[in-house]
Amino acid sequence: MASRPAQSSSSAFFVTVGRGLENFAADEIRAKLLASRELGCQLGLALTREFGWKADLRKPQLEVIAHLNNEAFIVGFPLTRVSLANRSWCRSPGLRATVAHAVAVLAGVQSGAKVLDPMCGSGTILLEATMEWKSAYYIGADIDCSQLSSASRNIASSKQSIDLIKASVLALPLQSSSVDVIVCDMPFGRRFGRGNDIMSQTRSSLQEMIRVLVSSGILVLLVSQTMSQEVIKMVEDGKCCQYKTQINNALVDITKCPGHARKCKPDERACGEDASRTVYVLSLQEVVPVSLGETEASIHKYIKIRLGEKKDELNRCSEPSFN
Hints:
Elements: E1 12-19, H1 26-51, E2 54-55, E3 62-68, E4 73-76, H2 97-107, E5 114-117, H3 124-132, E6 137-142, H4 145-158, E7 163-166, E8 179-185, H5 196-212, E9 213-224, H6 225-236, E10 242-247, E11 250-253, H7 268-271, E12 277-291, E13 296-306, H8 311-316
Parallel strand pairs: 1-2, 1-3, 5-6, 5-8, 6-7, 8-9
Antiparallel strand pairs: 3-4, 9-13, 10-11, 10-12, 12-13
InterPro entries: RlmKL-like_Mtase, RlmKL-like_Mtase_CS, SAM-dependent_MTases_sf, THUMP_dom
Keywords: Cytoplasm, Methyltransferase, RNA-binding, Transferase, tRNA processing
Domain THUMP: 1-79
């Protein structure tokens, strides 16, 4: 049994509370945030009453972190004075480094792999990957010049090697099937708009990512909790495919040919009439929930496969070799 903390009036603390915001409308989210503050107050009062500690928001000796979602209530204490997300090379802040590291780890970068972030922002995900897997080749793309400038400053500070290009995720200047791994922090509504617009842009973005990804390549996405199920359904419905066909004994990408169907149900009947056509789709491998403070998100891991591959073949693809 854990020992009871010693009562001391000299112990100063403050409480940080986070709550899962999935599946709630805007007014309900505001209500939950207010409830989070109330929960923090009640937890602080309980600590004061139980152990004689006093709250101090300016110079606390201890931080108490609580996170409440639909499944659990977790209370923890940071063991380091410096945040694990702190990076000495960070000159232009972007995605929290610990979350970026989790995305990079799930990607399972292999030696010699070509790794792309098509919406790299300040380059945090790629930089986290370069710290662990230095023998891969990294490319960061973004349509925003200010974001590329931020990434350039961080790369220079970290002394890592990443090539940057100005390009839209909707039209990447890369050959089909030329990238082994794609990592991406998907927009959380602001850059792509909302409603049908963001779904259309997301579908087009995924279509382009599939195009440049090699067969058995890895795609890892960070998506908002509200978008998570929408993206999964989009992939499962076969709305993001790459089409190739035999022309003069050469395999030609026809995904963007005029008049070509942009939707293909993932079953043999949908695409089996033309035996010369090959269809590539994404296979969901893993979903990992993460917290971004007041926002909840999920990391999705996919593998690009040929339509019709068996389940046991998919399992063997979970750790692909990029030769």
